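User: New here, any thoughts?
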Amino acid sequence: QLQLVESGGGLVQPGESLRLSCAVSGFTLDYYAIGWFRQAPGKEREGVSCIRSSDGLIYYADSVKGRFTISRDSANQSVLQMNSLKPDDTAKYYCAVLMRRVTTVQTMCNQNLGNFWGPGTQVTVSS
């Protein structure tokens, strides 16, 4: 079992930045990939970015390319650096781990795949 906890959310103005962290604990035998997802009120959850553990292969959703950067600092932490934030980025952000290579990181993100999920952290972008 893995436990994931997100932190770093908050209220910011458009154009500002936030840094989200995902702390992973438990039996952290190397997992296949870790990803960040978000869900806004009334909308479906969407994959933001996913990174493969073995070689750092990364997928970004088109909506965040060039503004967000994902990293996996260790087996125990992933960071999502979010720059040039927009009101449309307002959502609850979740991190999730996929334990085994059942698909690509792109599919992991596009289909919201994860074996373990954190409780989420709220990001609000508003002037």
Summary: The chain has a mean pLDDT of 94. The two ends are 40 Å apart (CA to CA).
